[in-house]
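@channel sequence for tomorrow's demo:
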Amino acid sequence: MVIILFFMVINYDWKVADAKARFTDLIRKSEKEPQIITRHGTRVSVVLSYDSYIALKKYETEGQSLARIDHFLHLSTEFRTEGGYDLPEQNRRSRPGPDFSVE
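structure tokens (generated this afternoon):
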């Protein structure tokens, strides 16, 4: 039995000089997939579509909010389980409740 595997390597890397020379092509391709700009073989920048950018910003914002909530819950759990802080007991009977007596 012979198994043949095909690997498709898609290269989205652009040298800075190529990106400058073919800027319109770079923009068109970025509408479909993010395009990576390299300088001296090092990846330095990414060009992506506006829709991708908005989705990324939305994800980033939601992620930060979720991270804050997660951090708060983690601290809250630590606080409750460690019991390292003495909090005063709340005395809820200190103020009188409503009078429902019928005269």
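heads up for whoever presents: The chain has three helices and three strands.
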